[in-house]
Amino acid sequence: MDATKIRDALKVLLAIDDDARDAELDRYVSAAISAVEAYTNRQFQSVAQTDRFYTPRRNGVVLPRGPVASIEAIRVDGAALPVGGWHLERGGLVLRMSSDQTPTEWNGALVEVDYTSGIDATPGWLVEATAAIAAEFEDKAGGGAIGSVKRESVPGVFTVEYATGGSTSAFGIPSEVAVLLEMIREPGFA
Length: 190
Hints:
The protein has about 190 residues and is α+β, with helices and mostly antiparallel strands. Helices cover about 30% and strands about 30% of the residues. Strand 5 and strand 6 (about 95) form a beta hairpin.
């Protein structure tokens, strides 16, 4: 994700019009990006990596970091599979394919997959959602009141005003943002 765009959106939410707090805001943005990646089981920057699977499942291996942008190579017990020797399914499931393009068993003790995962282009709504999470983090750290203002009063007796934050998930993500993130959430352990 583009941290600069998220910081700029955060500054709009917090009504900050100078650069004096940029280093502090960058910490909240970084934490928000990490929370979004953990919550959605996705990476938002392309990363080349290799995963190893020992005695893989018969029906395929599941690449743990997604979304998968491309598979560069697959080796079974050190021998490279030919291009077309695998098929990538939704959710990072990789099937080994026979010469007639039907799924087949892996028949190996070690499967190594070289692949690239992540999303380079971040949609505007995700920038805004991540900025809202960063604002929640900034609010919880004591930087200000981003929640709703509540007022209780009994005329002629007392008036009390206070700020409240919305409910959050285990990741510190506001519930209204979590609803949006569900659209891109991959199955996993989060």
